[in-house]
Design a protein that fits this description.
Layout lengths: L14 E5 L6 E5 L11 H13 L1 E5 L6 E5 H6 L7 H10 L15 H11 L11 H4 L4 E4 L9 H4 L5 E4 L1 H7 L21 H19 L4 H8 L3 H9 L11 H4 L8
Antiparallel strand pairs: 1-2, 3-4, 5-6
Helix pairs in contact: 8-9, 9-10
Amino acid sequence: MFEIRDYSHRKYVNLIDTECLLCYRKFKIPANNKGRIITCCDYCSSVILSMKKTTGSYHQCKMCDKPVFVTDRKRRKVKRIYCSRKCANLGWSTYHENRGTGKKYYGPNWLNQRRKCRKRDDYKCADCGISEEDYGKEMSVHHIRPFVYFASYQQANKLENLVSVCEDCHRKRHSGEEHPSKFDMNLIVADTKPKVKIMQKKKAQKVYDLLITTDKTLAEISRETGLSYGGVSKIYHGTRWKELYNKPAVLTNPRRCSRD
């Protein structure tokens, strides 16, 4: 059994009456703890804590618009909500983000092209036929061929590549094989690929070149390239960046691995 909090043995403390936030039981607490002690026992405290962790609301995934339940605590910490790790990786690596609004950025001509597309489609959904008047808000404009497959926003935002759809139909177009997580990474243009990863790949290639063309120690290569000793060691033993070589350097050009 959980014992009710009892401070009566503290004769020198000024006690005041309060009420448990969960079960409404009356109990006494020190006056200087008013507002901090809100439950009568450890059980009520654990229930309140679990309730705080599970309270939240639904938000749309920034990539595929899928509804996602997010706790209030997480919502305060995270600005962009994603339904899965795939959507999160794709959202951060293949889309430009407008930091002012958090919306996907499709180039300076996007708003103008969006208006033209809605007007061309008579302000109706191309899939279900509902009008903006009946729908209660503007239609979404969908890229038929994904935006990230184009080298320039001018090509991606051509009217023949755009279609007006309502949000429900928009989600359907982004489901199944058309889900952003199923995008062919080989077709995504270089400018939209994560720049940090490209820089890391170049550094890894430089490390491997030094491993097979020189007899420098791993520590020397680490200092020369700026990559950590552990990172160099993983490339040397073939556990990182396997796509850069057919055989790891430990087989083709073994060396001493000390940190001297």
